[in-house]
Structure formats: C-alpha cells, structure tokens
Amino acid sequence: MIAVILIIASATAGLGFVYGVTVLQFLINGVVVGSIYVVGATGLSLIFGIRKFANFAHGELMAFGAYMAWVVNTIWLLDILAGFVFAILTTALLAMALELFVFRKLADKGPVSALVASIGITIFLQNLISLMFGTSDQVYNLRVALNYVLLQDSNGVGVLFINPIKGVATLVVAAALILFLHLLLTRTTLGKAMRATADNPDLARASGIQTRNVVLWTWAIGGAMAAIAGVLLGIVQVIRPAMGFNVLLFLFAAVIIGGLGSPYGAMLGGLIVGIAGDLSTAFLAWLGRPGVLGLEQPQAYSQAAAFAILILVLLFRPNGLAGGRGVAIRAQGRWLRFPRLPWRSRGA
Amino acid sequence: MTDVPSLLLELANFLVPASIFAVMALGLNVQWGYTGLFNAGVAGFWAIGAYTAAIVMTPFSPANPQYPGHLGGFSQSFLLAAVAAMALAGLAGLLIALPTLRLRADYFAIATLALAEIIRLVLTNAEHWTGGPHSIIQIPRPFDVLTTNPGLSDASMAALAVLLVVLAYFAIEYITASPFGRVLRGIREDEEATLALGKNVTSYRLQAFVLGCVFMGLAGAVFASYQRFVNPEQFDPLATFTIYVMVILGGSANNRGVIVGAFLFYSFDWVSVRLKDYLPPTIGEKVPYLRLMIIGVLLVLLIIYRPEGIFREKKRTHTPVT
Fold first, then answer.
1. Which residue of A has its CA nearest to B113?
2. Which of A271, A296, B22, B218 has the most neighbouring CB atoms within 10 Å?
3. Global pTM?
4. Would you tell me which residues 307-346 of chain A have a C-beta closer than 8 angstroms to some C-beta of chain B?
5. Do A111 and B106 touch (CB under 8 A)?
6. Which sequence spans correspond to the domains of chain A?
7. What is the ipTM of this complex?
C-alpha cells in the first residue's frame, strides 16, 4: 500500500520535471476515471467473491445501465437523477435474471463454464443494445457546467481544472457508494451473510444462511453498481454499445490488483488503474517526443499500461497487492506458486 | 482459360473461410479441448500469423503517397510465409505462456485476453511496421504465378485450404491419440494426479499451448493470403469467442467434431450474410446484430444443456494389463 503510493508519487514527480505542474491535471483525470473503475470493479469483485468466476458480462451490465439512463434522460426527457434510479433498478433486475436463468444452473460446473456463459451473454447484450439503440455515440442531456479552476499561473490563466459534473459529482457519487458498500458489508445482516457465503458457502449454509437468496442479492447489488459505473462513464466519456467491454479489462486489472473477491482491494485497484492510465499517457507522450524514442501515436498505448500492470500483478502477486505473496511449493526442481492455500480461508 | 461456374466460385468462397476457422478450431482444441487451457487470446495468435505472412509475402509497399507503408518487400513464397507465420505464432505463444501458464484458468483467460488486446493495439498503432488501420494490401495468393483467372485462383485457394484442414486433422489426431495426448487429457481431468504420476505438467501444458498457437498462425497465413489484405480490426476478441463457439458446438476434445462445428457455424454465418441481401433494408441492416445475438444465446444454451457439444469426446478405454 505504502509502496504503491510511493510509486505513484515518484512517477508524478518524475513527469513533473518534464511537464511542470500540468502533470497534476493527469493525476486529477486519473482519479476521476479511477473512481468510476472503483465502482465498476467493486461490483465485479462482489460477484467474483460469491460466484468464483470472472464475469465477462459485467461490462455489458454497465453499458445496459448507461443506455437505460439515456432512455430516461434524452427520450423521456427527465433529469439524469431519474435516469440513475431507472438504470439501477433495471440493471439489478437484469443481473438477478442472469443468476436465475444462467449462472445458478452452472453453479457446480466449475469457473470456466460460467465464464464461457458470461461471454455468450456479453455477445448477446452488446448486440441487443446495438439493435435497439444503434451503434453511434450518444451523450446525456446535462446542464453544461464550466470547469472550476483549481490553480492559476501568475498571469491569471488557469492551469489545473476540474469539471463540477464530470469531475466533482463523479467523485462524490463514487465516495458515497464506497461508504454505502462498507456499511452494507460490515453493519447489515445481508452484508455479513454475503461475506460468509463468499468465504465458505457450505459453512454458511450450515449456519442457516439462505445462500441462494444471498447470491441473488449480491447479483442485484453488483448489477446496481455496474449501472452506476456505466452512467458515470457515459457522463465522463460517451455512451456506445461497446463502452463496457472496452473498460472490462481495466476492471479486471483493478479487481486482480486488489485481490480477487476483495471489494476493498478492488477500490484500491480501480484508483491505481485509473491513475496509471492517465499518468502513462503523459509518460508515453514524453516517449513519443522526437529526441526520446519517437514512438508513433504514443497515447494509444496508454491502454496497454493498465494491461501491463495487470499481467505484472498476476505474475508476481497473484493474490493481489493487498493479499500477500501466496504460497510457493517446490516440485520437480521448479517453483509452483499458488495464490493461497485453498483450505485456509482469509479472515473476515 | 474457361470461366469457373459461379456456383463453384461461391462454394470456394465458402470453403476457404470455413477451413481457416476449422484449422483454428483444431488448434484451440489442443489447448482447450484436450488440455483445458482457456486461451482467450486466439485472435492475437491468428493476427501474428496473418501479419507475418503478409509481411513475408508482399512484394513492396504500394507507392500511394497516402499509404504509410509497412515492413516488407520480401516477396517470398506462400510456403515460406506459412512456415514463418507458424514459427512466429508458436514463439509468441511460448513467450506468453512461459510466465502465464501457471495461473488459474480464469486468471489465464484474462491475461491472454489482455495480451491479445496489446497485440491488436500494436498492430493498429505501429503504422510504419504494419500499415495500421490502412491495412497491409496487395498480399499475393500462392497460385498467383500460375493463374490470373480469379475463379481458378479462388478454386485453388479452396483446394489448398481444405488440404490444410485434412493435414491439420491428421497431425492433431495423431498427436492427441499418442501417449502425449493421454497426458494432456490427464492434466485436464486432474492436474495434481498427473503431477503425482511424475509427469512434468508445466512442460506438457507449454507444449500443448505452443502447438495450438502454431496452427492458429497457419490459419492466419491462409487468411491473409486469401483475402489479400489484413486489418487489425479483424482480430478483435469476438474472433476468439467465435472459435470457442465452434469448438464447443462441435464437441471439445473431438477433432472431427470441431471441424464439423467450424463448418456448421460458418454456414450459419454465410447464410445470414446472404440473407441480408434478400430482406428489405430496414430488416436487413439488423441481421448482423440478430446473428450475433443468436450466437450469444447459442453459447449459453450449449454450455448449460450440452457442454459436450454435438459429438462427444471418444471414450478411450484401455484393457487392464494382466
């Protein structure tokens, strides 16, 4: 954790020598995008924790939510807040339907069957959205807000900006959701039942927890968070059918960095992925300068930065940054590394 | 030269893509069907094969000033291009698999998907090497030196593609029926037990993965040569998922099954593309989405109700030694 902050701080400082104070703008944008990843990734992580498979359809849940809010906002001409509510309700219902009609039937067939099914759902939903709403980019009907100027240079020209809707509101919503999720997981019966089911479903069932209902509720909450992340992403960027799938790998990166199935880790991971994406844009732009490397179209590779982090974390800390080094067993002259011993459950 | 009848031409243009998919499905069958490796980066290895072949075969970068050009100018034969494509795809598979293969199935899927996306990003953006979104164009076909007749060119391509499917089938059938294949199935069923029997599981998985990637590279070489151009957008994750539908539809770990799966699936594709021309435009424009929605539902239904596919894996019983 401290190491992560140190790395981000030193990267910012290093780039600061090249760009001066503007590098902080990348950091701000990174935190805003990262907070959206946090919301998406915590939902994904909740579902992973309880169903133990990588849900490729989570991006499509986000896109579905974004389009539901778009329908309310630009077709029914209601406020975006009404759009949020409608998106949350419909996407939560959709997520519950997925559990009822697909994933419940695959519960005892191992993680890969469910993963393949989620790919099928991804293809279905993405094309359903394209069919119903078209493939062109859409935007929400929002009140236009001027950027807040955070810092001015000596001539009074703004250097650092943040938009009250696209920046501040996004951060506030994300922070509120994290608080909500924390309270849910620690203070409510449902939250405790969710953690117990994620930790050991058999034991949870033996203790009298209705694990089927708990799983269903987890899907609803995960879907609701996906919808919120999708609407926020639609506000900050644009709404298009592939919007969710395009950020899906970032969400996986966030979830894995934080440790699979750990919602708190996913929050940290989301911020890291968001900041890394934007800081790497600055770094790559520097690499693209003629004297340095002369890389072609350097910004395009900023996506690759998050993937590179994902792969590095998978290789060296498969249990996530927060989850320790895992276990290594020496067999046949080589080290086999396991995320953690399967029979030792993580403390709650 | 007489003209080749149009029906035959249509058939050729059906057979080539279907065969390319069949070769890829066979390659994936080694990885996923027999060894249980969920490679979500099939499109990446396919792309490496296609771009390698394109760069090896193209005569020169076209002189159009708008065109950024690409690596190339080697104008080598298809045979050499195919070998290079297979070698490079295999090498890429080795380099990717070395660090990632020991990951759990779902981590491995995410890692390979990310790597395939990185490959696509590089192909799109390294314009001076790959032509980027402008595609590599004017890729020759293997029999261009013999005939300039487009009909005969298609027909010869179809013959070559079908021949490659047959060769790939026998090669993979031979490998998977051997003791080597038995170890692969052992790893799929119970990794620890296979390890306990003294088999070097990591090495076997690595070999199976590289073998599969080699066939994907071969499919890429045929693909590039067949359509005479390659574009990075053709190698998106949907391409990977399509191959999975073929393998699961036909029957994982059944080589004849996955070929049938590839041909069946491609006929559905082919019909839906032709169907578009016969429907009024308002419905016709929706066909591509409906087609993919059906594919998605099909994948879900298959995995729930018939995970073994149309053809089950052949039961291999061994009489105990007395």
1. A249
2. B22
3. 0.89
4. 307-308, 310-311, 314-315, 318, 331-332, 334, 336-337, 339
5. yes
6. 2-338
7. 0.90
